[in-house]
Design brief:
This protein is mostly helical and 108 residues long. It has a single domain, classed as Serine Threonine Protein Phosphatase 5, Tetratricopeptide repeat (Alpha Horseshoe), CATH 1.25.40.10. The protein is built from six helices and no strands. The longest helix has 18 residues.
Length: 108
Amino acid sequence: MPEQTRLEMLTQFLETNPNDAFARYGLAMEYARLGNDAAALEQFGKLLQIHPDYSNGYFMAAQTLAKNSRTEEAKKMLQNGIEAAKRTGNKHALSEMSGMLEELANSN
Protein backbone atom coordinates (compact mmCIF):
# COMPACT_ATOMS: atom_id res chain seq x y z
CA MET A 1 0.00 0.00 0.00
CA PRO A 2 1.48 3.40 -0.92
CA GLU A 3 2.65 5.50 2.01
CA GLN A 4 0.39 8.43 1.24
CA THR A 5 -2.59 6.14 1.12
CA ARG A 6 -1.80 4.75 4.57
CA LEU A 7 -1.47 8.26 5.98
CA GLU A 8 -4.65 9.37 4.27
CA MET A 9 -6.60 6.37 5.49
CA LEU A 10 -5.51 6.81 9.09
CA THR A 11 -6.12 10.56 8.98
CA GLN A 12 -9.58 10.13 7.49
CA PHE A 13 -10.46 7.46 10.03
CA LEU A 14 -9.36 9.73 12.88
CA GLU A 15 -11.46 12.60 11.54
CA THR A 16 -14.56 10.53 12.29
CA ASN A 17 -13.11 8.59 15.26
CA PRO A 18 -10.72 11.04 16.96
CA ASN A 19 -10.54 9.03 20.19
CA ASP A 20 -9.54 5.73 18.56
CA ALA A 21 -6.30 4.81 20.33
CA PHE A 22 -5.16 2.16 17.85
CA ALA A 23 -5.60 4.45 14.83
CA ARG A 24 -3.86 7.36 16.59
CA TYR A 25 -0.96 5.07 17.52
CA GLY A 26 -0.86 3.78 13.94
CA LEU A 27 -0.70 7.31 12.56
CA ALA A 28 2.13 8.22 14.94
CA MET A 29 4.03 5.08 13.97
CA GLU A 30 3.51 5.78 10.26
CA TYR A 31 4.92 9.28 10.66
CA ALA A 32 7.89 7.85 12.58
CA ARG A 33 8.45 5.23 9.88
CA LEU A 34 8.49 7.98 7.26
CA GLY A 35 11.01 10.01 9.28
CA ASN A 36 8.59 12.79 10.21
CA ASP A 37 9.47 12.72 13.90
CA ALA A 38 7.79 16.05 14.71
CA ALA A 39 4.45 14.80 13.39
CA ALA A 40 4.98 11.45 15.11
CA LEU A 41 5.59 13.13 18.47
CA GLU A 42 2.54 15.34 17.97
CA GLN A 43 0.38 12.25 17.43
CA PHE A 44 1.94 10.39 20.37
CA GLY A 45 1.15 13.45 22.50
CA LYS A 46 -2.49 13.46 21.40
CA LEU A 47 -2.72 9.72 22.00
CA LEU A 48 -1.35 9.94 25.53
CA GLN A 49 -3.50 12.94 26.38
CA ILE A 50 -6.65 10.99 25.48
CA HIS A 51 -5.40 7.53 26.57
CA PRO A 52 -2.89 8.03 29.41
CA ASP A 53 -2.58 4.28 29.99
CA TYR A 54 -1.51 3.42 26.40
CA SER A 55 1.92 2.09 27.42
CA ASN A 56 3.27 1.50 23.91
CA GLY A 57 2.73 5.16 23.11
CA TYR A 58 5.13 6.21 25.85
CA PHE A 59 7.76 3.71 24.77
CA MET A 60 7.66 4.65 21.09
CA ALA A 61 7.53 8.38 21.88
CA ALA A 62 10.58 7.94 24.13
CA GLN A 63 12.43 6.12 21.34
CA THR A 64 11.61 8.96 18.94
CA LEU A 65 12.79 11.56 21.45
CA ALA A 66 16.01 9.65 22.16
CA LYS A 67 16.69 9.29 18.43
CA ASN A 68 16.54 13.09 18.23
CA SER A 69 18.98 13.56 21.16
CA ARG A 70 16.17 14.73 23.43
CA THR A 71 17.36 12.44 26.22
CA GLU A 72 15.87 14.25 29.20
CA GLU A 73 12.44 14.34 27.55
CA ALA A 74 12.80 10.67 26.66
CA LYS A 75 13.57 9.82 30.29
CA LYS A 76 10.50 11.72 31.49
CA MET A 77 8.35 9.97 28.88
CA LEU A 78 9.66 6.61 30.08
CA GLN A 79 8.99 7.48 33.71
CA ASN A 80 5.40 8.37 32.81
CA GLY A 81 5.12 5.19 30.76
CA ILE A 82 6.41 3.07 33.61
CA GLU A 83 3.69 4.51 35.83
CA ALA A 84 1.08 3.71 33.17
CA ALA A 85 2.41 0.16 32.80
CA LYS A 86 2.22 -0.31 36.57
CA ARG A 87 -1.37 0.97 36.62
CA THR A 88 -2.42 -1.44 33.89
CA GLY A 89 -0.27 -4.41 34.95
CA ASN A 90 1.58 -4.45 31.61
CA LYS A 91 4.74 -6.24 32.72
CA HIS A 92 6.22 -6.48 29.24
CA ALA A 93 5.99 -2.72 28.64
CA LEU A 94 7.25 -2.09 32.18
CA SER A 95 10.31 -4.23 31.49
CA GLU A 96 11.06 -2.62 28.12
CA MET A 97 10.71 0.93 29.41
CA SER A 98 12.70 0.25 32.57
CA GLY A 99 15.50 -1.21 30.45
CA MET A 100 15.54 1.77 28.11
CA LEU A 101 15.48 4.22 31.01
CA GLU A 102 18.47 2.45 32.55
CA GLU A 103 20.34 2.60 29.21
CA LEU A 104 19.67 6.33 28.89
CA ALA A 105 20.70 6.97 32.47
CA ASN A 106 23.98 5.09 31.94
CA SER A 107 24.76 6.85 28.67
CA ASN A 108 25.39 10.20 30.40
